[in-house]
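Internal ticket - ligand job 270, SN-glycerol-3-phosphate:
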Amino acid sequence: MANSTGVLLVFHFLQYCLMNPVISSWKYPALIAHRGAGKHAPENTLAAMREGAKCGYTMFEYDVKLSKDGVAILLHDDTLDRTSTGTGLAGEHTLAELMELDFGSWHSPAFIAEPILTLNGVARFTISNNIHSNIEIKPTTGREAETGAHIARLAAKLWQEATLPPLLSSFSTIALKAARLAAPEMPRAWLIDNELPTDWLTVAADLNCSSINLNNKYASADTVRAITAEGYAVCVWTANEPDRIRELLQWGCHSVITDAIHAVPPDFAQ
Ligand code: G3P
Ligand code: MG
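stdout (structure tokens):
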């Protein structure tokens, strides 16, 4: 009796996977390091990527926008003030100007003179170290479509030989639509900052995304169930407590983005 129940469960699971090609083809790791190394090194720099890699993480999330001269650079905020020695909008500076700034001293003296990182640079580092990427398209306000299209096209080119394509995510549906048009083959994730909106299924279908990325504050067992039942993967950011991460994975989240790369080993999920 117990055996036949087991067989039935396996059968239903396989049927579920076949009906949900996105879920069954989700190959990204269960844990992803936020901004490269969480808070342990200056976010979105090569120093952060090295720290994340040292901790054994095999996938990084990082934020990408465009410089004035259209170079894809890693930076979270629209402005330079918080995480560099510069001021004002990053998008109003050329790469050459940004290269003059220090993106590490705001964090701690160990990182003084850390330079800005480009998408080309992070692609070289991650691909050669067998690390997967979640590129968050973080456009400077007003440059959403241009940024989405440019990053998607560039990522498709830079990662063409990689074992797994980067996951392109964004809060901006304008950027994601432009990314879809520019490089339809690249997997996309829609970042939702609040409760799941009532029209989420329509938007997700329009974006043709693989994953819905939820704010940890609003992720619940019901939400995860509702999303996966529709065939989408679910990622949650930023969860830092081991018990919470375990709970999210038990609910069926496919990946969790975390700052806690020292406290939570990358094989924690197994
Ligand atoms: O991609 C998940 C997360 O990074 C989104 O929020 O503000 O940390 O970029 P934020
Ligand atoms: Mg981000």
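Auto-summary: DSSP finds ten helices and nine strands in the chain. The mean pLDDT is 93.
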